[in-house]
Amino acid sequence: MHLQLESVSAGYAGADVIRELSFELPRGSIGCLLGPSGSGKTTALRAIAGFEPVRSGRILGDGRLLSAPGWHVPPEARAIGMVFQDLALLPHLDTLANVAFGLQRWPRRKRLARALALLELVGLRDHARAYPHELSGGQQQRVALARALAPQPPLLLLDEPFSSLDAELRERLGQELRRILQQRGTTALLVTHSQQEAFAMADVIGVIERGRLRQWDSAYTLYHRPADRFVADFVGEGALVPGERDETGVVRMELGRARCPTPGRPGAVQVLLRPGDVTHDEKSPVRATIVHKAFRGAETLYTLRLGGGSTVLALLPSHLDFRVGETVGIRLAVTEVTAFENG
Ligand SMILES: Nc1ncnc2c1ncn2[C@@H]1O[C@H](COP(=O)(O)OP(=O)(O)OP(=O)(O)O)[C@@H](O)[C@H]1O
């Protein structure tokens, strides 16, 4: 389904919880809403699913009007599949029957074969006869996912679908789900707190803050070219350092010069440097003192203080193993940076 939101506002009794939300998700693509707790992500999904009316704007699926003020297609008539955190499994049905539940109109043999195939996919074929109360939280989430996928909905909405899973299973299931969705050309919109999950799953990510969409872009663009300081801060680690932009778009910093691809006025700026933008180089004239280190396995994240007082982060191979207090040579590893105007 090609999903379109046009300036949608929705909320509960008092104030709007989502405000003028606009984005478009082409058929077969996977989108993700990322934002702090309470920013309105679940409310956005509920409005798309048809559980909340919209107060202004329009929601369209394949060009068909689903929601507008005074217009509301009921949830069951929207052909949208859902995996919601609070959408409980049917307690009196076993796992297999739960997954087959949405396939009532299918012939019995086909229905069971499909439910079993989906249980296989989520790694629960051995639990086909177990009841929901006999499953762990993570297993229940996997059953809910299989149940939502079974009828092959043209649009699938997923609210924190992997929150009860451990990191390894989360990654495996995420990759598997992405493959299935792409194979079938299913459009999906996912809500998550986890940036890693968003990066791994989504073609396009929307960052929401207090009900407003700050940016709707690819993971790369969000991370390296955030539209504002909120997105820069929310998506990934980094540091802002002072710089001076000239009229040609070149920015000078204590660490060196780089080009700023987005247009902006000349003058004092704050430059965003991600941990991968700074590298170790003993030949570099720029020296910095290590004030903190965090071992991450293959890499170590160093916090370094420059002579001028600003602080940067650098993600370096962990075998280098510098000591806190040590002074090392560093340089920019990139030729282009994102800068924000002061103020
Ligand atoms: N049924 C409801 N009635 C009244 N207010 C609600 C209701 N559901 C949510 N809210 C309020 O709307 C705001 C947004 O909630 P929502 O669940 O959409 O945020 P979220 O971004 O999904 O948060 P989280 O990541 O914590 O799940 C919150 O301030 C919440 O208190």
UniProtKB/TrEMBL annotation:
Q: Which residues form the ABC transporter domain?
A: 3-235
Q: Which GO terms describe its cellular component?
A: ATP-binding cassette (ABC) transporter complex
InterPro entries, alphabetically? AAA+_ATPase, ABC_SmlMolc_Importer, ABC_transporter-like_ATP-bd, ABC_transporter-like_CS, Mo/tungstate-bd_C_term_dom, P-loop_NTPase, Transp-assoc_OB_typ2
- Name the domain of life this protein comes from: Bacteria
Which keywords has UniProt assigned to this entry? ATP-binding, Nucleotide-binding, Transport
Q: Which SUPFAM superfamilies does this one have?
A: MOP-like, P-loop containing nucleoside triphosphate hydrolases
Family annotation (Pfam families) = ABC_tran, TOBE_2
Q: Which Gene3D superfamilies match?
A: P-loop containing nucleotide triphosphate hydrolases (3.40.50.300)
Q: Which GO terms describe its biological process?
A: quaternary ammonium group transport
GO molecular function per UniProt: ATP binding; ATP hydrolysis activity; transmembrane transporter activity
This protein's name: Iron(III) transport system ATP-binding protein
Q: Which organism is it from?
A: Fontimonas thermophila
